[in-house]
Amino acid sequence: MATLVRNKHVVQRTWRPMPTIVRGEGIYLYDEDGNRYIDSASGSSVVVNIGHGVREVADAMYEQSKLVTFAAPHLFTNRPLQQLGDIVAERAPGTMRNNCRTWFGCTGTDAVDSAVRLARQYFLAKGQTSKYLVIGRWQGFHGNNIAVAGIHGHTFRRKPYYPMYQHTPHIPPAYCYRCPFELTYPTCRLKCARALETAIHQIGEEYVAAFIAEPVVGAALGAVPAPDGYFQTIREICDRHNVLLIVDEVMTGWGRIGHWFGIEEWQTTPDIIATAKGMSSGYTPISATIGKEEIWQAVEDTQIPFLAGHTMNQNPVSCAGAIASIQYVEKHNLMENARTTGAYLLQELKKIVDEFDIVGDARGKGMMCGIEFVKDKATKEPFDPKMKVSSRFEMECLKRGVSTFPCTGCVEGVAGDMALVTPPLITTPEQVDEMLGIMKEALRALQDELL
Ligand SMILES: Cc1ncc(COP(=O)(O)O)c(C=O)c1O
After folding, report:
1. Do residues 294 and 308 lie in contact, with contact meaning Cβ atoms separated by under 8 Å?
2. Full-prediction pTM beyond 0.90?
3. Quick check: is 7 in a domain?
4. Residue 44's pLDDT is what?
5. Is the CB–ligand 1 distance for residue 218 below 6 Å?
6. Fewest 10 Å CB contacts: which of 93, 148, 318, 425?
């Protein structure tokens, strides 16, 4: 039994008491009572790509902190920052490779916020001052500040702040299991992608600056990859209408789906990338907004600085941690493992769909997978949200030693339960078996309660 703690001076992500984690090693976390948890979602939300307790990363940060931990970003540059900029450029997708610049921040949210600012500043620089709108997608998530809440499409996380942000247009998601157009791939001819062109026509391209999407939708849809051809079609539409394509690689970046950047799976080069999480594997907060060289050059030509930024941006210790984490991914061939063990994981999750009445779908790419719960498999009817099925699954797993990430809202933002199954990229097939064995016990207990 774990000792559950709720410190009265600390506000946490839930109001319930929690075990205290004191140590992590590989795919495992340990609490203060010595209980072990398999980290099935890589630190809750697809963060700890290289697993816990990697000495090289801790050492790199320690060495850098002995030299210098902070130097005013408006006056100085620093060596880890420059090295990380080169590393990112060498790994950027398509024509961005060695043809981009990166702005480093602290969180995924500020990377998205900076991506949106960059799009706006670019069009101001080009004299196309009416272009400001960013089109997002329903059931997509891009971060947790007030401005970004207007752009993402995660209803539960937007609703409380509804009167406080700028309302931006949204198109339906690419979600084949519950196609918003009730069509079937490929005869649908990617109507979900073509919906972007409809929106641009209806709004007027002179107002649209950018379109933003996740290659594999994480928290809002439980690991739903866009179908083949989706981003190629989106790219063509953006090009036709002078609209920038921003991809949100906060979850999908840094090897998660078997490439440095998830968008490579669709052989598409975006204009701007926002990324974070796996970049440092959670060893330190860091994020990046990567833009094509020509976009940054246009902004630089105005001689107006890029007007984003936070005090802790470009932190040398964080940059050193990210460099070591990226090098670890490379040295241990983790992108290859994301592809192969990820394929095995998905295959085994699909067996769970056959085995359990309450699991309607398993989907994913690389080591980014998820399952969706249904009350009725034939009709795909979701459970009543009041039953809190994904939270109950989370608790059943936690009791048995697996930490998971529950998601809700795949059905029009108001219903639908899912869980991400996104273990660290170091996970072996044997560890997948161990993890899924425990998840199946949790599913059995939950199914007995629900049906
Ligand atoms: C796709 C995506 N974008 C942006 C964010 C925001 O990142 P952060 O929580 O680091 O601000 C998240 C967080 O879960 C995310 O999943």
Report:
1. no
2. yes
3. no
4. 75
5. yes
6. 93
